[in-house]
Amino acid sequence: GKGDSFPHVYGASWNPFGKVDGGGDEEDAAIKHKWSEFVTYGARHVKYWRLFHRDDGTPYYGKKGSPGLPENSRFSPVTSPIDVMSICWMPPRGNEIVPGGGSALVAGTRNGDVLLFVTDPTKGLFCTRKLKAHNPGPKIPELSGGGVTLNGVRCLALRDDGETLVSAGGDGAVMWWTTAQLTAAARSKSVPCEPHTTRVLNADDSNRPPAIRSLDCHLYSSD
């Protein structure tokens, strides 16, 4: 991450819909499929790690030809680098299903926006859209100490059917998004995209909805 001596990495997320790079032992293709790529994210960055194989067939994660060194994602020209608080990969659709078709993922930022990223075998990981979603919410102490910062979008969860993404954060709101629309919007600037349902938690004694730091989707719930 960005910073001095403090580790500003907030999390990591494997792509459960990842693809095989075609190297190594084909007998473990099913395993490699699930563990073929992941991202780490945090202070002003998302870093992209992919599975590759050396000439002798041994695997490594990083960028092509550089074991242990990830690719830096590109935020510009969509936005300036910003703290990323959460990540969720989208189920593959259309051309994404074929080998080399890339992937789409959603990122929640500290100021409440949702960013859409896509992967490309040659271009790496880059941001394509910024969607206004949540309010930033109340300020909280910084992890590194010495100041306060915004809550942002702390939670992104994919429902079991793969058709709905749920987001939540410091503003106390829970939003439901259609994954097909998010993926299409990541691929085209002309596709409109917004949550189809928004609910705000009941306010506390201060008349301010409680900030949401985590969430999950019940397998059999319609909410």
List the helices and strands and how they pair.
Blueprint lengths: L8 E6 L14 H6 L2 E6 L2 E9 L5 E5 L2 E2 L3 E2 L11 E6 L14 E6 L4 E7 L3 E8 L7 E3 L6 E3 L4 E4 L5 E5 L4 E6 H9 L9 E4 L23
Antiparallel strand pairs: 1-2, 2-3, 3-4, 3-6, 4-5, 7-8, 8-9, 9-10, 11-12, 13-14, 14-15, 15-16
What does this protein look like?
By secondary structure, this protein is mainly beta. It has one domain. 7% of the residues lie in helices and 37% in strands. The protein is built from two helices and 16 strands. It has helices spanning 29-34, 179-187, and strands at residues 9-14, 37-42, 45-53, 59-63, 66-67, 71-72, 84-89, 104-109, 114-120, 124-131, 139-141, 148-150, 155-158, 164-168, 173-178, 197-200. Strands 1, 2, 3, 4, 5 and 6 form a six-stranded antiparallel β-sheet that branches. Strands 7-8-9-10 form a four-stranded antiparallel β-sheet, covered by helices on one side.
Helix content: under 10%
Count structural domains.
1
Q: Give the SSE string.
A: EHEEEEEEEEEEEEEEHE
Mean pLDDT: 84
Cα distance spanning the termini: 35 Å
Q: Provide the low-confidence segments as ranges.
A: none
The fraction of residues assigned to DSSP E strands is 35-45%
Please state the CA-atom Rg, rounded to the nearest Å: 18 Å
